[in-house]
Amino acid sequence: MVSIQSKGEKATRQGFSDALVELGEENPNVVVLGADVSGSVKVDAFAKAYPDRFISVGVAEADMMGVSAGLALVGKIPFASTYGEFAAGRPFDQIRQSIAYSEMPVKICASHCGITVGPDGATHQSLEDVALMRVLPHMTVISPCDYLETKRAVKESLSITKGPVYIRFFRDNTPMFTDEATPFQIGKANTLIDGTDITIIAAGLQVWEAIQAAEMLQAKKISARVINMHTIKPLDREVILKAAKETGAIVTAEDHQIHCGLGSAVSEYLAQTLPTVQEFVAVRDTFGESGKGVELMKKYGIARDDIVKAAKRALKRKKGRRGEKAS
Amino acid sequence: MRGTDHQKLSIADLKEMARQIRRDIIKMLMISKSGHSGGPLGLADIFASLYFNILKYDPQNPTWPGRDYFFLSAGHLAPVWYVTLARAGFYPLSEMSTLRKINTRLQGHPAPGYTHGLPGVEIASGALGQGMSIAVGATIGLRMDQKPNHVYVLHGDGELDEGQVWEGLMTASHYNLDNLTAIVDRNFCQIDERTEKVMKLEPLADKWRSFGWNVIECDGNRIEEFLGAMQEARNFKGKPSVLIARTFMGKGVSFMEDDYRWHGVPPSEEQGKQALSELEPTKFGDFVMFEWEKEVPEVVK
Fold it and tell me: Degrees (nearest 5) of the Cα angle A318, A322, A324?
């Protein structure tokens, strides 16, 4: 098994920030909108470099989405930034009508997603955003796994000129394990580790957890494939079907509610093609609470140990199923 | 290039066009048997003024970069907009008879251009309160490129209950968007009741003023007065302007006038005939029914 190493830690939101500064230089139509959390979501660097192309809308996310739609309509490339809960939840109707239905190429950039945002507590832990965004027609949903992948996703999002993109990232510093040689293409998943017994499909911070889980499983002679499903919509169906055929058992892992996120997307697809044993590592239909990110991951069952346990459950069910078939 | 030079009508013709728009609305709703009557009838004078005197556009090239941008925030007022767009040459007159029918470009509420959308419609509207923010974004974007296009957005008065409108108002005045003009259709009626009973809006002009807007109050059913107010708005620099235009719901049809119960319903066959008998035919002529098989435009197929 190829070992994947962390090359230090940096926040995914920093990747967003650095991408914006580069895009500002490269494309004069790029504009950034801030809703009074510019420092936290790190759009302050863009605002400083290109003050004429930074638009503060105040603490008014509904307005921000409408203003973004208007900017896109006249040829600008707007990046609307705030925390996940206020990027997807609060202005859902504005995104639905003024952006998704109207097919406006707005980039909705959501920082501080997931339970791992930690101490701020449940109100700020965006655990429903993938569900809300992926249900919208015309929407692309991306959940990058580390600093560099976030940066590349933000830059690559310019290639989507019809319809919106939702990009989800996180607050904390997290391991950097992709590099320029790692493939990144929107809609095309990356198989990071090959394996034959089971497949772990993960997105966002759970990709690193999945890698760790795969190593723990390897120690127990279980060969786990790890797929980085950075694009949750459109889903890379080919790679999922291949994994289902070749490994016969799936674990999905995400920092999101168990309903309607990555796990559901995989399951919906396999139900229609090749029903496969699947275990879900996700927050189990409950709100979060304050605490450190790592503590919350453990308490709410989305850490590497939980992925290992889920893999064992899935393997047991897979074995049982084979037994059924034989009888 | 001036998109509207050939479209400008005299005051007398604008009045006649407004009457034709009212006739078209009635006929359209009689055919569709679904849609909003009251608000659209009350706005006929404003829409005749907008599309046959004020706005710059090219119906042959709806996305002409030099156009003025018009956003109908209160999407349910679509019948008056659709009728006016047909009269202005954006699509065939006969297609008016397809309102709300399957495969139509005249969706119940305005649809975006890529699929069911009608030429001249910039963006979807229907869920209320979203147009101001869109207009603000468009105005900021145009100003960044030093473009002179003017941006207009029309709100219903009941729609002002929506908080997002006031977020947009703040943004517009924060950025001193004087290339933006809002129109409020002040007919004091919304679905449930009179506006002041559902949710008090007065003192409405003071509210807009306190949000940093230049406020002009005018009679939206008197074309000369409305045109003058629009001119005043366009000439005003340093702040966005709003016309709070007093209109009467159902204007021109005796049994609908100033009655909130006509907000969201079409006239029956009999009521429609009665309405048409009160609106004298004009030199512009009524539209004829659309024949799907013969006339369906490529874009819809």
Answer: 115
